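FAQ: What does the model actually see?

It sees only this:
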Amino acid sequence: MEAEQLTIEVPGLRLAAQAWGPPDGSPVLALHGWLDNSNSYARLAPLLEGLRVVALDLPGHGQSDHRPPGVGYHFVDWTVDVAAAAEALGWERYALLGHSMGAGIASLLAGTLPERITRLVLIEGLGPLSCAVEDAPARLRNAIVRQRKREQKRPRAHADRAAAVERLRLANPAIGPESAELIVARGTRESDEGVVWSSDPRLRGFSPLRVSEEHVRCFLSRIACPTLLVRGREGFPFDPQGIGARVDCVSQLEQVELPGEHHLHMDRAEAVAEVVGPFLAPPAPSPWKGAPALPKRVGVDLEALATLKALRLVVLDVDGVLTPGAQVPYGPGGNELLTFSIRDGMGIKLLQRAGIEVALLSGRDTSPTRARAKDLGITHLHLGVEQKVPRLEQLAAELDVPLSQVAYMGDDINDLPPLRAVGFGAAPRDAHPEVLKAASWIAQAGGGRGAVRELAEQVLKFQGKWEQALAYYEGGASG
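And it is asked to produce this:
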């Protein structure tokens, strides 16, 4: 698949980019590593079906503008540039895909604008490099001393691109020959002396200032979207203690280790696509006519964070939330048959064990619902209720729980009043479009297919109770 060549104007700079996938695909902004360029994604991006992947040449890299003389390359500035590029593309919400340095930039941006990032994929990187506070003065001194030498140094010329590939592989033996050719193809230009790198020589200078580890972890703790960390088995050597502390900061992080070295997204694109593609894939279309192809809110916005941490009561609709809502089958004798998700049941039990009350509030009263509630030990049953808010207020008062500490999950228009009355409104991905607009959070799963389980995990992770939930089963307890 040939890439579409783009030019993106951001304040003071012209950024070059390449795009793959349909223009109406789910938007993904891809960020490359240090001294790489957008060709870093030339193998992976075409394998990601249904996505609109736009890979930037970051400032000073590839075919993008260099920063003006006297203006340095500070890490946080790249984060600002990427946010500006998304604005220029007209993207309100989008996913981020980053490799190495690009993963560090993506981490900072996801922690800075958590309400705009839908998904986050980090390849061989979790946050930027940090610096101990006491080392900062020496680092700045070294940068000043080396700056003049770097500015006076002429870029090295190579006889041809093959020689540039050989030099790149000599400096970085881990990168495969075909991958090196891709980087060189977009990262070099012809000159009177031969082939030279198009990247700004100042990029090779000494970074004058890095954020502290405390800064990094603060950004990571604000990431609110599902996050996937992909590492190569023979890739960048992480400090186990340091990376472990960073992993603990991200509330919804999955880790995958694949065979490969640092540039595994290039050298082993097919294997990486097998895990990244499904993670970034847009949810299935809603059965509702006119429903948006992608829910507006996936993940947790900042306004909802405080509610999640203080949540004490979860109230669930039944049809379309605990069961698939499109059909209601009847048995031979006219008895109603409802299908419930085992995973949702586990999610309810997890909430109960964590001390969070669970209640059912439904417009219909059915025998299967009562039987399922009994199996799960749900004692707060409010069934056959047409006007839900008064009953919801009554329940909250009985349990002495303010509505600001209540979550409600519903899927249809009769759920709009309770969704708006509580502190945290949730919906399955196949809910009615009006419900999707009103919800604070939207599950990736549909009703009766694990949406409640997602909500349960979201609550427990933000309340710091997830490890305790895992320990219950690892300890051999039954229940």
